[in-house]
Amino acid sequence: MRPTKLTISAFGPYAGEMTLELDRLGDRGIYLITGDTGAGKTTIFDAITFALYGNASGENRKPRMLRSKYASAEARTFVEMEFVYNGKTYRLRRNPEYLRAKQRGEGETKERPDALLELPDGNVITGDRTVTARVEELVGLNREQFSQIAMLAQGSFSRLLSGRTEDRGAIFREIFRTRPYQKFQERLKDKAKGLYGAYVDSVKSIGQYAGGVMAEDGERWQAAVESKDLEAMLDLLEEMIREDESGAAGLDQDLKAVRERSGHLGQRLGEARSAAKAQEDAQRAEQELRENRPLFEEARAVFEREKGRAGEREQLIGEISRAQENLKAYDEHDRLAADSRACQAEAKGMEAVEAAAGNEAETLGLKLQELQEELDRLQTVGEELVTARSAAERLGQNRQRIAAHARELSEYRAEERKLAAAQREYQVADQARRAREAEYQELYQVFLDSQAGILAAGLKPGQPCPVCGSLEHPAPAGRAAAGDGTEGRPGAPGAGAAVHEARGAGTAIHEAPSRSSHTPVTKEQVDAASRRAKEASDAAAKLSLRAGGVKGSLDQRFERMKEQVEAEIGGWKESWQERIRGAQAKGREAFLEEWKLVLEQLDGVLGRQAEAGEQTIRGLEEQAKRRGQLEAQKKKGTQALENCRERRQEAGKARLRAETRRTELERQIAELKKRLPHGDRAAAEAELTEHRRRLLAMEQALNAAEKRLNEYSGRVSAAEARAQALNRQLEAFYRQQEERYVICAAPQGNLSPMPDSSPAAPLSPSDWVRQLEAELAGTGEILERLEAGRNRLHHRLETNRLARDNMVRQQAAMEAARQQWTWVKAMADTAAGEVNGKDKITFETYVQMAYFERIIARANARFMVMSGGQYELKRCMEEDGRGKNGLGLSVIDHYNGSERSARTLSGGESFQASLSLALGLSDEIQSQAGGIRLDTMFVDEGFGSLDGESLNLAVKALAGLAEGNRLVGIISHVPELKERIEKQIVVTKEKSGGSRAEIDI
Fold this sequence. Notes:
Blueprint: E1 2-11, E2 14-20, E3 29-35, H1 41-53, E4 78-85, E5 88-95, E6 98-101, E7 108-111, E8 114-118, E9 124-126, H2 128-139, H3 143-150, E10 151-152, H4 158-162, H5 165-175, H6 179-211, H7 218-227, H8 230-307, H9 310-377, H10 381-457, H11 495-504, H12 523-569, H13 574-585, H14 588-675, H15 681-738, H16 765-831, H17 843-866, E11 871-876, E12 888-893, E13 898-901, H18 907-928, E14 936-939, H19 948-961, E15 967-971, H20 975-980, E16 984-989, E17 995-1000
Parallel strand pairs: 3-15, 3-16, 10-14, 14-15
Antiparallel strand pairs: 1-2, 1-4, 4-5, 5-8, 6-7, 8-9, 11-12, 12-13, 16-17
């Protein structure tokens, strides 16, 4: 992955929008990011990391902190980056969450985090989390891995060099995710601790249960507890439980006997109390009889008197029935009268409906007559509309033909222009051809003359001429040269003039190279001129053929157009035909101009006719639409007229029926009045009311007498029955007391026997109650003492049984916890590196040692180069042996063969070692990430601690890191690096606030 373009806006110290064309840095080598402290050098890497993953490279820089404090309120915060991965270009744009000014109104609004990823195929992915997931899938690294591989951060790896095992372990834990091994150690330790705690808890629980034992012999039990002999304690507790179980059985027997005696006493006491109450109730019943017998006799006499008026009641009932029948006749009279009034109202209503329907029918008839008259006026609208549309269609066809002729004429004129252009091109090419041919003829003649001059120069008197064989040479030829024109050579008349003419005409050909008057013409120059002349001739020939083809096509188009014109004007007026044919006689151009003028006139005439036709059609369409509406209205009105007539007929029939019904009802009312006994309903109702009042009074008197008789009869009967029952109960009680018996003998304790009932001294029920209550109270006290002793014994027994069971259970749990703790403790000590006599290497450190060995091997490949072959790193045990061990680091000095702690290196040597470790760690992380290769890396370390030679070696090592297709950026403000590294990104603080960055190549 290599960024090629980075745009930053209102991000970190960069207040405005800034674009870095990173592809200017190339695709390999090293470059420098330099600038003032705090200007924002590391922010460039933060911007790259944020664009990819939505977070900065460091954990202390959260996304909501990335907006520039120097940015204006309207500026938008975002990072846009283009990068190349596997030869394909991707584009990212992402913004964090931040507050910005509202676009409308006042105040601020929160901009939500968002991202966009444009793929090489043009597809676009949006959404902050979705884009991050797609980037992780594409690059194969998450943000933490990318930051660790692509950025060697400031001071991060000096701790790796100078720290102890604990420090390096903490770094490796986060990088290589070895925390699960640490957690495994902690779980083992917690498990052992928990098991030991369970063992101790079991011991404590046994002691607590033993402390809760209730012992009758406390000293003996306390001695067993202090001995801490669990088996002896359990044996003694078992013996105590058996003794208490035996004592509890004896107490249960005593309690049973006392409860039985108490039950008998309670039963006798209940009988005595019932007898005492029965005696009191019998006395009250006798008194009630004496009071109610006279009242009963009086009530019986009144009831017999009211019963004797039964005949009088029967007579009133018959009169009431007759009066009710008379009232029903009055109901019938009222109903008939109401029906008569309803019929009268219905007849009047129907008469009004009949009149309204007649008026409505008359109005509808007049309206239908008006509609028919308008329909008669619009009867021919349909035929006129068809005729107008046919005319418009023919007119449209004529306009289409005229437009087609106009297009044909326009195309012909365009062909004419093409012909003129082709002819001009041919004329220019022909002039060039003649000039080239003249140039060739001139050079060829000069070449021949030059050859003769060369032969003549070699002639000597008396020697034969190689051309003619003459021994005399009276007029030898001179040497000719270019630029001589026609002077000194025969032939080629007018050649120079032709060349001059061609040049004077302003042709676009290249003129022959200028020569001095004494430069001879070579065979190569003549051949070149010949080729130029042939090329010009070929070009002129092609243009001639092209112009000829255009001319032939134009003539064919003209003849075809003449045929079309003849076919078109065949149906025109004679005057128009003569006008066209007269123009044809004047020539092609006159004919074409006249034909154009005619077409324009016809197009105007036809356009006006078409517009008028459209207006006519629109008017006829409106009339046709109106005719349809009128026909619909006529149909609706005809139906409404029929409905009105039907309503009028129905209303007349209903009126006649109502009048006939009313006449019949009046006859029935007159006949009913003759049969009624009273003049009106009020008199009949008054008579009925009086009969009902008298009957009600007689029935109420009878009911009251009967009720009073029943009441006193019930009182007397109840009192007699109660007195008899109570007397029988008292007789039974006294018979029982006359029998001498004892309920039960005394129990095993000091209980007294039950009292006897002697016939010589009978007691009243009340006396028996007092005597039995006293005896029952004494028995209750004995029962309470026995139950209290039994409860104490049972509580002690249950407590000791529970303590015994719990102690036995805890004994088993204690033994199981002890056994498991023994082997878990051994495993936990091994994982924690706490085995006596062994190195203090934890399980996690053991795993990290493998990573550390590979890191050191990768680091030494660069450290040996940086140190000039002097130093080599080596993993070792900590020197002081304190704390954890296994990740110590020493350095081997190959100059003197010694090995010492890496913390003894000087400042510059420490930087070299730290940088080497950082690069080694980056390589290892990259290897752990699946062999992913990043094309860009950043190094942010303190190069200022190096001397000149060490700086050379460090830069050399970084240059080796950049071999292949890798680009390494060094973040530093060291002046020497500015001189050594040509490609730079220069970050500068602005005086107005904020920073800016530029690429300097």
